[in-house]
Amino acid sequence: MQAIISAVQMHLADEYTITHEPVTLFDLMERASAAFVKCFRKDFDDRGLRLAVFCGPGNNGGDGLAIARMLINSGYLNTAVYKINFSPNQSEDNKTNEALLKKMHAPVRYIYKAEDMQFIAADVLIDAVLGSGLNKPLSGEYAQLAQKINAINIPVYAVDIPTGLPADGGVDENYNGIRAQKTITFQRPKFNFFLPESLAATQEFEVVNIGLDEDYIQSLPAGHYLLEEKDIRKILPPRKRFSHKGTYGHALLICGQPQTMGAALLCASGCIHAGAGLVTACIPGSGLTALNASLPEAMYLPRDIGQITSTAEDYKVVAIGCGLDTNDESKVLLEKALEMQTQLVIDADAINLLAKDKNLLDKLPPGTILTPHIKEFDRLFGNHTSWHSRLQTAVGEAFSRRLTIVLKNQYTFICHSDKKIYINPTGNPAMAQGGMGDVLTGIIAGLLAQKLSPLHAAWAGCYLHGKAGDRLARNSYVVKASALAEQVAKEMK
Ligand SMILES: NC(=O)C1=CN([C@@H]2O[C@H](COP(=O)(O)OP(=O)(O)OC[C@H]3O[C@@H](n4cnc5c(N)ncnc54)[C@H](O)[C@@H]3O)[C@@H](O)[C@H]2O)[C@@H](O)CC1
Ligand SMILES: [K+]
């Protein structure tokens, strides 16, 4: 998995690479700029485009100047360079790149005040004003410049980071920086790109490698990690010779009401397709026919506390909450589940029940997995006005209560008791439909039944769920939860 390092650590990686390899900062800037141009050309192949490259005073601006040179050299002859000179500061490599550009007789226009900026006749604008060196929110001339750039209605491609967006530490709800269509970022995505608020700063991002020392980057103490396919492959349980259904564990799913039986069925389907040896659905009797018809592999347990208690020892994992309602009967079921001393997955209405009665929250056994979406999370742990603060709460609660909190979103954040946040990269908006969360709960329960640790079950569950969704979204506008559950088994192969 990739360590998502901070802007400060990225700077260290930069220095480390320069000290330990025969490269200079200027060489790194060349590499970064060449990588940007390569990526940019994939999206804009037309050499006749009018490009406006805005370059600031530091190394981000240095990249911009080098990018302009490379674009002109590769035939984008309508490239105009705007050099932002709000202060006399200029980094060394910025100076070198400015000189190289001038040697080519490329016209460089200087902007000393935001109001100097006249009408820009361009098809695409490249933002290399400020990058990871941002050390305070934009104000004064820079804020005005950002406003003026945003008012030009053309696509903006940001170099490394949109000007005004910090790399980490949250995004201001009144983001006043440059709004990019795409950001081509160096070596690592920046943590803030994963927060929904960053959409104001960039619609999308692409990471390009610039050859910084990977071993060093991975050795840095990071609080955030981005999951990769190889991490998941390593932890998936193998189907062994001579194994049988008992080998792969028994999951009990306490889910569903007569009017939300689909949630229980989808959860059971996720669990079956993730490979649990046995799946028992504890659902209202009115759902039995549907269960037998749609999932003949699943067994049925009536909603009877006596029967649940007497079979408690059979289960490796209990998942509770999908379509459960928050009525008194459901509360009793949750109380029972909390006493069962098995691995627990708590979702949906079971989370809402915890929110209603904080005494129950305090009874969660260590190792429990919670799978809230944003509203369930805020009901449980209080309202948050930003994702940054929500994640801080999630990390704190996961640590102090020894939980794994799967905070669902476009990029799901898995906050674990080790105080780290694991980011799941898979998934897409075609999956935004009812029932998806129920399938995820089932998948995680299925993996826990197969003896994965809570953390590994959360990693693999989220990754596979999103990957199945990505595969299905290639040929479909929306992805149905039931189809996704079936796809999961194929992704695990
Ligand atoms: N990390 C790396 O390994 C590499 C980084 N490179 C580039 O270098 C960039 C970072 O460069 P720098 O550290 O020079 O910083 P920037 O170019 O982002 O910023 C330049 C300077 O602007 C000033 N500044 C910051 N915030 C401001 C604000 N709100 N208002 C007014 N002035 C402000 C600061 O004094 C800062 O040093 C990266 O984003 C990337 O584009 C690449 O050139 C190559 C390698
Ligand atoms: K930038």
UniProtKB/TrEMBL annotation:
Database matches in SUPFAM superfamilies: Ribokinase-like, YjeF N-terminal domain-like
Keyword Protein biosynthesis included in the entry's annotation: no
Protein name: Bifunctional NAD(P)H-hydrate repair enzyme
Species assigned in the record: Haoranjiania flava
E.C. code: 4.2.1.136, 5.1.99.6
Binding site for K(+): N60, D127, T163
Quaternary structure and interacting proteins, as annotated: Homotetramer.
UniProt KW keywords: ATP-binding, Isomerase, Lyase, Metal-binding, Multifunctional enzyme, NAD, NADP, Nucleotide-binding, Potassium
Gene field: nnrE
Domain YjeF N-terminal: 10-218
